[in-house]
Design a protein that fits this description.
It is a single chain. It is built from six helices and 19 strands. It is α+β, with helices and mostly antiparallel strands and 492 residues long. It has a domain of 276 residues. The strands form three sheets. Strands 1, 2, 5, 12, 13, 14, 15, 16, 17, 18 and 19 form an eleven-stranded mixed β-sheet that branches. A six-stranded antiparallel β-sheet has the order 6-7-8-9-10-11.
C-alpha cells in the first residue's frame, strides 16, 4: 500500500528534543558548455557556509502540498532496539549492556563517545517515526544504496511539453531559407569586416554621400519644413521570446530576449535585451540582464549604450556618443552565488535545507558605428549549476546533499546590422537580424540525504542507513537553434 503523509506534532516534538546537529554538504557541478563560451578566469565562488539547523533563518517556504510526495507504505510495528554492544552478535553472552556503558559511535565520519542509553533513546525515536511510514532501520542495508522516502512532484510530462515547444521554436540553419549561418560569425569576424569597409575611404564616401542625397531628395532633410515627396515607411524586424523550464516552487529557469532593428526617416536603430531568471523554492533570482541600444541618426552624433545587471544590480555600463567611425569589442564576466533556505523533511524526519546556485555569467559584444551604418553582436552567457545542503538535529545522524544538476547553461547570440547602400540605379537598406540560442537546462539530479548510525552486531560495529529526498531528477534539455535569422534588403 502506498500513499502520502506529512509530519505531525509528534515529529516536531521529537526534533525539538534533540541536541546536536550533524552536518554534511556536497556541492554539485554543472555540465560542459559549448566552445563559444570563454574560460572563466575569475576566482571561483567559495563553498557555501555550513548549514546549522538550530540557527537557520529561512528565506522561503516550501509548498509541501504542491511539491512534496512522501513514499509511504503500510505502517510497521514499532519494536524498540534493546541496549546491546553493537560489536557483538545479538545472541552472544554479555551483548546486553547497562545504559551507562560508553559506546564509540560513528557520526558523520567522526567517532563520538556516548552512553548506550543516550544512543538507543535517539535511535528508537527515529525508528518510531520511520516504522509509522512503513520502514525500519532493521531493513537490509546495501552499501551505496539509499532508500527514497521523498520525491518532488516535478511534473515531468509538463516539462517534456515545454521541451517539445522549444525544439519547434528554435530552428536549425537551413541554407534554402537562411542566407547566412550567423551562429558561426563571431565578433572578430564582424570587427574585421567593419574595419575592411572603413579602410576603403573612397567607396565609403560614395556610399554615404549618395545615400544622403537620395534620402534628402525623396524624404526631405531632417528638420526641414518642406513637405517631402514621399513618406519613409519604417523597415526592420521585431522579435520577442520567453521560455521557462522546471517548477518555480522547486527549481526553474527562464530565458527572455528581444531584438528590434529599424530604419526610418530619422535614421537607424538596433535595440536588444536578454534576461536569465531562476527560481529556488519559490524565490525568484534575477541572474543576468543585458540591455543595449544603438542609434545612428541621418545627421548628428551616433549613440551606443550597453548595461549589464546581476541579481538586479548594475555591474557594467558602456555609453558612447560619437560623430565619426567607432568600433569596440569587449568581454565582461562575473562569478555569483545565491541560495534559499527553508524547512523540509525527508520522509517523517524534519531537516533544515538550502538550495542554491553558483556559476559564472557574462557578456561578449561587438559594436560598430559609422555614418548611415550600425552593427552589433551581443552575446550574454551563463553557466550556472545547482547545489544543496541539509542539516538535522539528530546527534546520531548526519545530513547532506548530492547529485549533479545544471540549472542554466546557455548562450544567446543577439545581433543586427543596418546599412544604407547607394548604387547607380538604386538606394536601399540592408538588414541582418538574428537571435541564436544554445540551451542546456535542468539536466541531472539533486537530492538531500539523512544517514543514521545503526548497530551492525559484529565488526565493524556500525553501518549507515541512508534515507533520501529526490529534489530533482531528469534528463533536461540540450538544444540550439535560431529564433530569427533575417538577411534582406529594402528598396528606398
Amino acid at each position: 500500500m502506498t500513499g502520502l503523509f506529512r509530519p505531525g506534532p509528534a515529529v516536531r516534538l521529537f526534533a525539538a528534543g534533540l541536541l546536536v546537529a550533524g552536518l554534511m554538504a556536497v556541492q554539485v557541478t554543472g555540465q560542459p558548455k559549448d566552445k563559444a563560451a570563454p574560460k572563466d578566469k575569475t576566482k571561483a565562488p567559495a563553498a557555501p557556509a555550513k548549514l546549522d539547523p538550530k540557527t537557520l533563518k529561512t528565506t522561503t517556504t516550501l509548498n509541501t502540498k504542491e511539491v512534496v510526495r512522501h513514499v509511504k507504505k503500510a505502517a510497521k510495528k514499532f519494536e524498540p532496539f534493546k541496549m546491546r554492544d553493537p560489536s557483538k552478535a545479538k545472541t552472544a553472552a554479555g551483548s546486553i549492556v547497562p545504559g551507562t556503558t560508553m559506546l564509540d559511535v560513528e557520526v558523520a565520519g567522526k567517532k563520538v563517545k556516548m552512553a548506550a542509553k543516550k544512543y538507543y533513546d535517539a535511535l528508537n525515536g527515529v525508528e518510531k517515526l520511520v516504522t509509522a511510514a512503513g520502514y525500519s532501520h532493521r531493513d537490509p542495508i546495501k552499501p551505496g544504496v539509499a532508500t527514497v522516502l521523498t520525491k518532488s512532484e516535478q511534473k515531468t510530462a509538463e516539462q517534456e511539453t515545454r521541451v517539445k515547444k522549444l525544439k519547434s521554436t528554435l530552428v536549425k540553419f537551413d541554407k534554402t531559407k537562411h542566407k547566412v549561418d550567423q551562429a558561426k560569425v563571431k565578433r572578430a569576424d564582424h570587427a574585421k569586416q567593419f574595419k575592411t569597409a572603413v579602410s576603403n575611404k573612397a567607396a565609403e564616401k560614395k556610399r554615404v554621400e549618395g545615400a544622403q542625397k537620395h534620402l534628402n531628395t525623396k524624404y526631405g532633410k531632417p528638420g526641414s519644413k518642406v513637405k517631402p515627396r514621399a513618406v519613409f515607411t519604417p523597415q526592420g524586424t521585431t522579435k520577442n521570446w520567453s521560455w521557462m523550464l522546471g517548477r518555480k516552487n522547486i527549481l526553474a529557469g527562464e530565458l527572455r530576449t528581444k531584438l528590434e532593428t529599424k530604419g526610418d526617416a530619422n535614421g537607424l536603430s538596433i535595440v536588444g535585451s536578454a534576461d536569465a531568471v531562476g527560481w529556488l523554492v519559490n524565490q525568484q533570482v534575477n541572474i543576468l540582464g543585458a540591455n543595449g541600444t544603438i542609434r545612428v541618426p541621418r545627421t548628428g552624433n551616433s549613440n551606443a549604450n550597453l548595461s549589464v545587471t546581476v541579481f538586479g544590480a548594475r555591474v557594467y555600463t558602456f555609453d558612447k556618443s560619437v560623430n565619426t567611425t567607432f568600433e569596440k569589442s569587449d568581454t565582461f564576466q562575473k562569478t555569483l552565488e545565491k541560495s534559499a533556505t527553508f524547512r523540509a523533511s525527508i520522509g517523517p524526519i524534519p531537516v533544515a535545507a538550502k538550495v542554491g546556485i553558483q556559476g559564472t555569467v557574462g557578456l561578449r559584444y561587438m559594436i560598430g558605428l559609422r555614418p548611415l551604418y550600425c552593427n552589433a553582436q551581443v552575446v550574454p552567457f551563463l553557466k550556472v549549476k545547482a547545489y544543496a545542503q541539509a542539516g538535522v538535529d539528530i546527534f546520531i545522524a548526519g545530513a547532506g546533499a548530492g547529485g549533479q544538476l545544471t540549472l542554466i547553461d546557455a548562450e544567446l547570440r543577439v545581433g543586427g546590422k543596418l546599412a544604407l547602400r547607394f548604387e547607380s540605379t538604386r538606394t536601399y537598406l540592408e538588414e541582418n537580424a538574428y537571435i541564436y540560442g544554445q540551451v542546456n537546462m535542468l539536466a541531472g539530479s539533486l537530492y538531500l540525504y539523512l544517514e543514521v548510525t545503526v548497530p551492525r552486531w559484529g565488526l565493524p560495529p556500525w553501518h549507515k542507513k541512508r534515507w533520501t529526498w529526490d529534489i530533482w531528477k531528469w534528463n533536461g534539455i540540450k538544444y540550439g537553434g535560431y529564433l530569427v535569422n533575417v538577411t534582406k534588403t529594402h528598396n528606398l
